[in-house]
Design a protein that fits this description.
By secondary structure, the protein is of the alpha/beta class. It has 2 domains: 107 residues, Glutaredoxin (3-Layer(aba) Sandwich); 149 residues, Glutathione S-transferase Yfyf (Class Pi), Chain A, domain 2 (Up-down Bundle). Helices cover 44% and strands 9% of the residues. Strands 2-1-5-6 form a 4-stranded mixed beta sheet, with helices on one face. α1 links the parallel β1 and β2.
Amino acid sequence: MRRSFVCRSSPAFSTATAGSCKASSAPPPLTLLQYSICPFCNKIKSVLDFLKVSYEVKEVNPLSKKELKELSDILPLDEKKGKPYMKVPVVLVGTEKALVDSSRILAELLSVSPGGSGPGAVIPSPPGFYEEEDKEWERWVDQKLSVLLFPNITRSFSESFQAFSYVNKVPSFSFWDKMGSQWLGATAMWMAQGKLKKKYQIEDERGALMEALGTVTKALGGEGKSGGVGFIKKGESPSFADIAVYSSLRSIEGLETHKDVMEFGDGSLKEWYEKVAKAVGHR
């Protein structure tokens, strides 16, 4: 999937050179290596889309990880394993720099004041977009909400199989890549569900997820307000906090768990979700 940088206005890259608009084959400044159902990858995509930053997406084969192995020369070392980092998301800046870990990627790319431009520069964001409160929400999403998604989408083999159906839409995967990834990936996820629940001391994964959603709706203030439900920080537009929560939930769109999420509570969560989706404007 290509989101071309060519001849497209972007607040983050406002000083693009004339040469960058000459040919549609010009490489984009940022490339995201991802799994489509990864909440951390979706966080990066949603932030970049909201800020109208051009980037390219490259799907990683979840079994072979060949797309990551091809970058072993520039990927940072995983100190625990003594080998190149082999997890998504990875963001390439040009062809020489690889950023890893979603929180670190965004912390390095984002700037709270205008001024960055061009490949490798920080991305300017609106005032108040990425403050300490937003970072606290990001930590909660990364450590709580996103962790709860895995055991919820792998409660049965059929749900795991559904979760891995995204591989069938990846044009760069061969028929055997798709078959192997869906069947073996779904089996591995399903079998790992109990281990993950034990690791994070999760007894009732659905109940824990609903409780987490309650934390979000409480922050939103629910319905009954003039103009409907607002955003987490009560601003006129979404902040990073909204996008962090939204993108985690968006990663499971189309799955049974997502349907239950959208039916949660008094409808304020769904209303908020749709408002954030519209503001992000995925491309």
